[in-house]
Amino acid sequence: MASESAARSRWVALGVIASSMLVIVLDGSIVTVAMPAIQEDLGFSATGLSWVVNAYLIAFGALLLLAGRLGDLLGRRRMFAAGTALFTGASLLAGLATSPGLLVAARFAQGVGSAMASSVALGILVTLFTEPRERGRAIAVFSFTGATGAAIGQVLGGVLTDALSWHWNFFINVPLGVAVLLLTRRHLPDDTGLGLRAGADAAGAVLVTGGLLLGSYAVVNVERHGGTSAHTLGAGLVGLALLAGFLLRQATARTPLMPLRMLRPRAVWAANLIQVLLVGAMFSFQVMFALHLQNVLGYGAAETGLAMLPAAVAIGAVSLGLAARLNARFGEPAMLLVGLAMLTTLLVLLSRLPDDAAYATDLLPLLLLGAGFGLAQPALTTFGMSAARSEDAGLASGLFNTTQQVGMALGIAVLSTAAAARTEGLLGEGAERAEALAAGYRLAFGIGAALLGVALVVAVAALARRRPGATPTPQRERERESRRAGAVPAGL
């Protein structure tokens, strides 16, 4: 009975974590649909409106790694609850905003709260579920939450904006956030953390946060200032210099914020690299495909969300219903390769899409290939968290979430800039606007397919030779480190 009660408690805790992530993912997609209404109501300028998104992205991307490590040091449940509380309060403030400045400030605070909660979510998950089969199922549920949240957000954002007002796109987070907070206190396991002395590297914290802050700022402003402008290059180069300084600092600090041994396992660095490429391609696909439906085919906001719903349903069905069993049967490497191949095929075919594509015959069959994300992401998450120990699970979670955010920012910056340049070039040659836009979006899909092709190469080179069940575990990594240090004879 005790074991059954413990198992039930773990799955309830997973439900709490997934619910929090659902709220955060909902917010990310629900806001984009309401942007025109926000601009009209609050009087945002065309350039100022982008900061409704950018303020959130900069705060979120800059703080994930630091928040994950602080969760290990101060307690992951404490960090999760504090982040959820901040996000909920900031959502209320955003809904009440009556000026552009107040809304941007609230969005920045939302980003901070999201980083605090998201950074430790996977860390809590992998410490709750230590048995491989159970962990696979838990990661599949977690991946399902992200896929469905994005789709629901697009549909719900259009409905709320049209039926009520854009304010409700933020107000809806408040009751959901309060419910998560109440459940967190009751169902998430309490952990005291290691204490600040175990990793209180103030200099490292300043370097990594500053580097990620400037890097995020440079990337999200590429479309405004240009990728080769002094503004973009200056911020980007200083950010890279700070991150390089952070890595050097971690190699010499007595209590490093991020022990570099975390990057040593091949599965970990390969998974994080693949994630940058995968998320960069697929997040850009989501944005560009929505723009194609609206600007080329004339769909409305709610229609666009509904049109993209089948892809999310397919992703959710695969990640929740099949991914864990297929991973256990054939191994994570095989499922990762199959998923990446399906997604690459999707973007290659979209890059050849006709201007007058019909939804039922041209688009819907392709969207079902999005189910490949439901195969790839759970396998990738397993690799990314495979070497996480109980004492640094929050850091591993923060790192994996950071590369996800980097992929989103870089992908949309590169692909949207390429699409815009292609469109402007064709307009200058006298092409019709819809024709020029469609050509720009097709170019973006083609670049996304190339990114996924690189991800496939990395997966084959670094991960494909692993046998089913051969994913490294924290115990295996500790044994390897001990042998390297001479503490454990090689034959034992």
TrEMBL record:
The keyword Transmembrane applies. The chain crosses the membrane at residues 12-38, 44-67, 79-102, 108-129, 141-160, 166-184, 196-218, 230-248, 269-291, 297-322, 334-351, 363-385, 406-423, 443-464. Keywords: Antibiotic resistance, Cell membrane, Membrane, Transmembrane, Transmembrane helix, Transport. Its main location: membrane. InterPro entries: MFS, MFS_dom, MFS_trans_sf. Pfam families: MFS_1. Residues 13-467 form the Major facilitator superfamily (MFS) profile domain. Residues 475-484 have a biased composition (Basic and acidic residues). Residues 467-492 are annotated as: Disordered. Signal peptide: none annotated. It is found in: Cell membrane. This is MFS transporter. It comes from Streptomyces millisiae.
